[in-house]
Amino acid sequence: MNFTKKLSNLDRRNFLILIPPLSILIFISISFFSPSTNPFSSFAPIRSFLLGRSNSILNNNVSSTATATIFLPMRNETVEIRRRSRTRMKKDELLRSRIAVCLVGGARRFELTGPSIVENILKQYPNSDLFLHSPLDKNAFKFSLLKTAPKLASVRIFEPKPIPETETEARVLTAHNSPNGIQGLLQYFNLVEGCLTLIQNYQNQQNFTYDWIIRTRVDGYWNGPLHPKNFIPGHYTVPPGSSYGGLNDRFGLGDLNTSVIALSRLSLIPKLDSAGLHQLNSETSFKAQLTTQRVPFLTKRLPFCVVSDRKYDFPPVGFSVPVAALSSRGPLSGAKCRPCTAACRGGCVAEVMGRLYKGWSWTEWGNGTLELCNASEEWEKGWEKVFDGVVGEKFGGERKRVEGLSLKNCVDDFEVMINRTVVWEAPLPEKICRMGLKAH
Ligand SMILES: *[C@@H]1O[C@H](CO)[C@@H](O)[C@H](O)[C@H]1NC(C)=O
Ligand SMILES: *[C@@H]1O[C@H](CO)[C@@H](O)[C@H](O)[C@H]1NC(C)=O
Ligand SMILES: *[C@@H]1O[C@H](CO)[C@@H](O)[C@H](O)[C@H]1NC(C)=O
Ligand SMILES: *[C@@H]1O[C@H](CO)[C@@H](O)[C@H](O)[C@H]1NC(C)=O
Ligand SMILES: *[C@@H]1O[C@H](CO)[C@@H](O)[C@H](O)[C@H]1NC(C)=O
Ligand SMILES: *[C@@H]1O[C@H](CO)[C@@H](O)[C@H](O)[C@H]1NC(C)=O
Ligand SMILES: *[C@@H]1O[C@H](CO)[C@@H](O)[C@H](O)[C@H]1NC(C)=O
Fold first, then answer.
1. pLDDT by residue (tens digit) across 332-362?
2. Mind telling me which residue stretches traverse the membrane in this protein (predicted)?
3. pTM score
């Protein structure tokens, strides 16, 4: 009989219950849609009170990530602190894990790139073991600067020989866009897979397995540290851009399982053949390796560029290669670079990059991250000064030291390095040093 009264009582109760959440909702929408003009900026206590409450209510039925997103505009500092603390935890975890750093390639400009690799990769993860796989040439003496690397596991410097090409390889690979044809690709693949072999031999010898393998190039100049966020279990991380129709293969990071597949560049060629894949360049075969073996990959921008002595037309158009100024803010994700006085900045970069085919040599350029060189000629006169000005005293000093290295100091440095290396497979220091330095 008193049904309506009951109902209205119920309504009133419900209404009372609804008041606090409603006020919070209004509060949230105000703060969410006007992050810069925070209406509560002078009411810090109210803010924290409301936030504390709304947080506990929301936590009951909104996932914690959603909560973080909603409060991002106002809980800036808190979010930032949490992000930093997550990074620190991740870093601590990485510092406790086993990491192999695989460094491959020729030492041509290692006096410029080496110190940045030591600083931004090896010293960031001082628990990591270094594996160097490189051909012997007149620049190999520059590897003596690695005597300062935190941990040296295995060094192999070998006399390069032609690699016989199989029919399968001739079918699967293309010489197109490779400066030294299919042989050039095979030499490069051999460097990479040879590094994996060094790592696997070392694992067997030492009776453990690595959690992570970082593959990077001798000619990479790093202008920032390798961040913990790039270590993603079960995925292979590569940089975006410079993908030449496939995947950028200038850097890669993954756990042991994904890395074994990513680094098996020669031995997986028959698998690509049986998958019916032909005429691949380095990048497309790299991508095919991962997709046919079902390794998920993702791209993350990384703070390095590949220092190159090659000349490229300027301005680049379509499928041609842009050359970044080494002074670019970055991250350059492995784009080609050289030390130069930038020929193109701001609007010019937007114009030039807009004319490049995106799936090829193109790289991310927004927000003033990229400046371009006119790389149509040799490195400019006085590039040393340009370089030193960009990298600062420490790396500049190392450049000068290596350039002025005497035969005796080179041999002495290698002796120190050999002493610190577990597996050393290279010609005698005397021989390596003599190839690049005259006795004096
Ligand atoms: C909140 O909603 C989700 C579905 O979106 C549900 O699974 C969960 O049980 C709810 N939590 C509470 C505390 O009601
Ligand atoms: C909020 O964070 C962004 C990016 O982290 C930053 O640019 C902005 O200045 C911050 N705002 C306040 C009020 O701290
Ligand atoms: C390696 O590990 C195996 C199994 O745990 C053990 O039997 C062997 O003795 C170890 N060898 C070395 C050199 O530590
Ligand atoms: C790696 O691969 C092996 C065998 O293929 C598998 O047993 C193991 O679970 C994998 N490990 C990870 C971390 O995925
Ligand atoms: C430029 O900066 C904005 C704001 O920090 C960011 O959201 C955007 O992704 C950046 N773009 C590029 C291409 O880096
Ligand atoms: C690039 O440099 C070359 C050689 O210094 C010069 O001849 C050419 O005009 C330059 N190109 C542009 C677009 O500035
Ligand atoms: C190499 O190590 C040994 C023993 O640890 C030491 O006596 C020797 O001086 C070292 N040589 C060099 C060149 O560092």
1. 999 999 999 999 999 999 999 999 999 889 8
2. 15-33
3. 0.79
